[in-house]
Amino acid sequence: MAHIYPQDFKYAIVNASDLSKVEFDDGIYPTSSKDLRYSLDDSQFVIKWDEHHTPHCIEDGELVPVSILSWADCHALMQTPAWTDPNPIEE
Predict the structure, then answer these.
(1) Which of 24, 28, 51, 69 minimizes the number of CB atoms within 10 Å of its CB?
(2) Is the pTM of this model over 0.90?
(3) Residue 83 — left, alpha, or beta (φ > 0 → left; ψ -120 to 50 → alpha)?
């Protein structure tokens, strides 16, 4: 069985208004809208897919991501104040 590493995926930033265009049953992760990671202002979310299989909704242009990123670029973006609260509430 082949290992799957974060670097084996393409990552896309998608506008929240395009959620209905995401085909979760076509190799997109997470596999459900309830598991998406949203930006702090809820305007965008991130999805990923195996770099060897572009989902049909993206390939045919139905879903146009804001950007398509490598793992390193997506990881860096997730560390920014738009995606991670720099002052989280501690309990």
Answers:
(1) 51
(2) no
(3) alpha
